[in-house]
Structure formats: C-alpha cells, structure tokens
Write a structure and sequence with these properties.
The chain is an alpha/beta fold. The protein is built from 9 helices and 10 strands. The mean pLDDT is about 95.
Length: about 250
C-alpha cells in the first residue's frame, strides 16, 4: 500500500492511474462534502455529535415522525442549500473528460448533481425529494418545511398519508436500480476509487470490497483510517479540497 500524504504527489499519482484506466469508478462519502461546510457523521464535530444516529433509522422515523422532522428541518434539510466544493467539481470534470465512468455516492446532499456530474448513483437517496408513503405523490422541500412549522407532521394533501424524505434510512432496502447499477460498475471497474469515506457503512462499503476481490485496483483517498486500508493498492492521506484543487489545475 502506497500511503501518500502530500497533495501534489497524490494528485500526480491519481491522474496517472486514471489515464491508464479503461473503467474508473468512484465512491464518495461524507468527507467529500465537508469542504462545503457539511459536517461528516463520526468526526469530533460531526453530525452525530449534535443528533442521535437513531435519527436515520426507519423505525424512528415511522414511530416519531414529528420528532424526526423537527430535527431534519434544523440539521438535515439545510444540506441542500450548500454549494459544491473543489472535490465535487473535480469529479464532474473527470467525468466530462472521459476519465471517470460512474460516480456512486453515499451522500444525500445532491451536490454532485449541482457540480455537473451526470452519471451519479445516489446509493442512499437524497433529501431533496419527498413523497407520500401511501399514494407516492411527490412533494418539495418548501412544502415540507412550511407544513412542519405549522403542523409538526407533513401529511399528503390528497390522501392524508405520511410524507417521507427520499433518503434511504437504516432499515430501508437500497433501491434495486441503484444497487444493481452500482454493483455492475463496481465489477466492471479496473480502478475503484473511494473518496472521503471511512468505508464503515454497508452495503455501500461492500462495493469497494467486491471490486477488490474481483481483482480491481482499489484506491482510497481519505483523511483518517478506513476499514479497507489493508486492501488498497494506493492510499492517499490528504486534505480533499487541496488535493482536488491541484487535480483541477492539471486536468
């Protein structure tokens, strides 16, 4: 495992690996969005230092929707107001130049789309779209936030059903299309890049392991250890924003 810590050296090695790859696929985690002012989950100032991890469990949402939405309006919904950072723009540029085939993200903030990435697989859904759990009528965040402030629990104006966010809660199944497409790309890749993820949450983290077991070159770019460091052919311990800014200048 080549553990590079200097952003310039890491950027040069990263670009060289991409240019020698025929099918590079990236998996992004919360660390990609910290440069946009979005906290990660498990860090000292992470989201779990402010709210309980139980907030993201489907049983909690269904049993305590008013409490969930009270937390969400303050801590979760504002994620979509943030702007993409250099890491998001770098990944979008790599795709546009044909160096990156697909982008699988664990993030729910929608920032990859804002940055211009097209082939994005949102493994855990997003907090941009909402829908009725009964009739599946779609709703937008403006309606949800207004209804939460007025009534506590957003209900469908057609059938009265509970409205839920488009995120994949713990306990929810991964959407079949996202799961199938992500696994297909993971198995087709000759270079699998995990960025800003501790690779702790499955089944997303298992995509990197599946790629590695199929003989794919695994590259990890993250601040802090991950669960698959020992399997990585390349390990870059760098600040993602500085690293991404250098890559953007070179490509």
């Amino acid at each position: 495992m080549n553990n590079i810590r200097e952003p310039k050296e890491a950027a040069a090695a990263f670009i060289e690996a991409l240019r020698h790859s025929q099918c590079a696929v990236a998996l992004t985690g919360a660390g990609v969005s910290t440069g946009s002012g979005i906290p990660d989950f498990r860090g000292p100032s992470g989201l779990y230092s402010k709210i309980s991890p139980r907030t993201f469990e489907i049983d909690f949402f269904l049993s305590c929707p008013a409490e969930y939405y009270k937390i969400a309006v303050e801590h979760i919904h504002p994620l979509v107001d943030k702007k993409p950072n250099a890491a998001h723009f770098m990944l979008a540029q790599l795709e546009q130049k044909g160096l990156l085939k697909a982008l699988i993200t664990q993030n729910i903030d929608g920032l990859h789309d804002k940055a211009g990435s097209k082939n994005v697989i949102e493994f855990h859904g997003d907090v941009i779209r909402f829908f009725c759990t009964e009739c599946e009528k779609p709703f937008d965040r403006m309606y949800i936030d207004r209804t939460v402030r007025e009534n506590g629990i957003p209900k469908c104006d057609v059938c009265g059903g509970l409205i839920r966010p488009g995120v994949v809660f713990f306990g929810d199944p991964i959407p079949l299309e996202a799961l199938y497409t992500a696994r297909k790309f993971a198995m087709q890749a000759d270079l699998f890049i995990a960025l800003g993820s501790s690779l702790e949450v499955n089944p997303a983290a298992s995509l990197a392991l599946d790629a590695y077991r199929s003989g794919t070159r695994l590259m990890i770019i993250n601040r802090g250890p991950t669960c698959l460091d020992s399997a990585a052919a390349d390990r870059y311990e760098v600040d993602l924003t500085a690293f991404s800014e250098i890559v953007l200048q070179v490509i």
